[in-house]
Amino acid sequence: MSFKKAMLLLEDKSFFLGRSFGAEGEVMGEVVFNTCMSGYQEILTDPSYFGQIVTMTYPLIGNYGVNNEDVESTKPFAKGFIVRDYKDRASNWRSQETLDSYLKRNNIVGIDNIDTRFLTRKLRTRGALNGIISTVDLDPESLYEKLKVFPSMEGLDLVKDVTPRERYSWNQTDVWISERFKPEGDFKVAVIDYGVKWNILKILTALGCKLTVFSAFSSADEILSIKPDGVFLSNGPGDPAAVSYAISPIKELFDKVPIFGICLGHQLMALASGAKTFKLKFGHHGGNHPVKRLETGEVEITSQNHGFAVDYDSIDKSNWEVTHINLNDKTVEGIRHKKLPIFSVQYHPEASPGPHDSGYLFKQFCELMKKN
Ligand SMILES: NC(=O)CC[C@H](N)C(=O)O
């Protein structure tokens, strides 16, 4: 690996000199911090990170390498990667490649030797900031000139860049997942792919769902044409309120089939119900967010990755019930329709990376399809 210098500059003009790893070049994006202690490969390949530069609060990154199995999509979607201490010696029986070589091969710019604790504290007090990482220009003035015209995440539709153009079928799972999830029946499920994580598809498959995956541009009629037993709304990048074309098809599906939404899918379901979304100060990105399930009073430790949230006050409480609340900041984590078999959560029950407390939600979706 190289020992070339790299620079990170934020929109508040603060800059950090570090060391280049991964690809060389220059990238801009919204800088967010993730508090997971492992799972960098799943994080990098989660399409919801499209448009963002991720910094890990866990200091040692790269030490267990990279493999072909732990990816959440075809390639890394994060724009750039910031770490405290990159370890080039990968030690794990599943490792096939170093993170440095993986990032180089996929043209993702990384920077290490950054005081990620200081950076995270700054993002926490200032809120998410745009940033630029460069290995080709180390002049803060000139980096700032480039960054200042870069758009803010608010108002950006990034789903159009990651959603598939054509529908496809999915029938893969893996041994770890099929140990936890057993077939619950034989269901035909339409997935709307706004940037879906593969772990979701693998869990649904293990539960006995035959999946047809649709583009975000699909109409309700196209989706209903396969006569699905249920519809799943996926996670995805960007500002949910900007994905206007995806909202009315969901609304049309409301009284037709059971629907389950995760993260962006949850936000779009809420928007279709007439509620509003807003941008959080620095978002929730990590594997230890406590969420209270209001029905039972139980607390789930959840995996999360979102910068926007559903506004509690805007929810139509005569038809919808808030089912889950985040115990850190009391934001909405789940909603359910009072009569129709439709529900969604803001967090990630598929985890990957993260704890498995919330896996029951997938079974709940199967129960609704069975009853219907
Ligand atoms: N993981 C996701 O689906 C993220 C949803 C949305 N892009 C947000 O940041 O809030």
Automatic annotation (TrEMBL):
Q: Where does L-glutamine bind?
A: 48, 236, 238, 264, 267, 305, 307-308
Give the UniProt keywords, A-Z: Amino-acid biosynthesis, Arginine biosynthesis, ATP-binding, Glutamine amidotransferase, Ligase, Nucleotide-binding, Pyrimidine biosynthesis
Q: Name one Pfam family in it.
A: GATase
Residues in domain Carbamoyl-phosphate synthase small subunit N-terminal? 4-134
Cross-referenced Gene3D superfamilies, in alphabetical order? Answer: 3.40.50.880, Carbamoyl-phosphate synthase small subunit, N-terminal domain (3.50.30.20)
Q: Which domain of life is it from?
A: Bacteria
Instruction: Name a single GO biological process.
Output: 'de novo' UMP biosynthetic process
Q: Which GO terms describe its molecular function?
A: ATP binding; carbamoyl-phosphate synthase (glutamine-hydrolyzing) activity; glutaminase activity
The protein's annotated pathway: Amino-acid biosynthesis; L-arginine biosynthesis; carbamoyl phosphate from bicarbonate: step 1/1; Pyrimidine metabolism; UMP biosynthesis via de novo pathway; (S)-dihydroorotate from bicarbonate: step 1/3
What is the recorded function of this protein according to its Swiss-Prot or TrEMBL entry? Small subunit of the glutamine-dependent carbamoyl phosphate synthetase (CPSase). CPSase catalyzes the formation of carbamoyl phosphate from the ammonia moiety of glutamine, carbonate, and phosphate donated by ATP, constituting the first step of 2 biosynthetic pathways, one leading to arginine and/or urea and the other to pyrimidine nucleotides. The small subunit (glutamine amidotransferase) binds and cleaves glutamine to supply the large subunit with the substrate ammonia.
User: What name does the UniProt record give this protein?
Assistant: Carbamoyl phosphate synthase small chain
Q: Which organism is it from?
A: Thermodesulfobium narugense DSM 14796
Task: Provide the taxonomic classification.
Answer: Bacteria, Pseudomonadati, Thermodesulfobiota, Thermodesulfobiia, Thermodesulfobiales
